[in-house]
Specification:
Length: about 90
C-alpha cells in the first residue's frame, strides 16, 4: 500500500468523513472514495474555482506567499482543501 493510500485510509477512518477527492488540474479524479457521478464532478469543479480565487487573494496581498490549506465550513458539510502545484 502506498503512502498516499495509507493517508487516505487514515483520514477516512475519522468520524464524519463522507469521502475524499483528489482532483488534478484538468478536473480529473486521481482518487475518489465517493461515487464519481455528476455531483462529485460538480464539487471538483467548484472547489477548484474557489481554491484558485483564494490563491489569487493570498498572492495579491503578498506576492511571496501562497495558499497551502483552505477550510470551508457550511451548514451541512466541512470541506478541507490542500492545493498542490503537482
Amino acid at each position: 500500500m502506498s503512502e498516499v493510500d495509507e493517508r487516505i485510509k487514515r483520514i477516512e477512518q475519522h468520524k464524519g468523513v463522507k469521502g475524499i477527492m483528489i482532483v488534478n488540474d484538468q478536473n480529473q479524479f486521481v482518487k475518489c472514495t465517493i461515487p464519481e457521478g455528476p455531483e462529485a464532478i460538480k464539487y471538483g469543479i467548484k472547489l477548484r474555482e474557489i481554491t484558485n480565487q483564494a490563491r489569487d487573494l493570498v498572492r495579491s496581498l503578498d506576492s511571496t506567499n501562497d495558499l497551502t490549506f483552505l477550510r470551508i465550513t457550511c451548514t451541512k458539510y466541512e470541506m478541507m482543501i490542500a492545493p498542490d502545484k503537482d
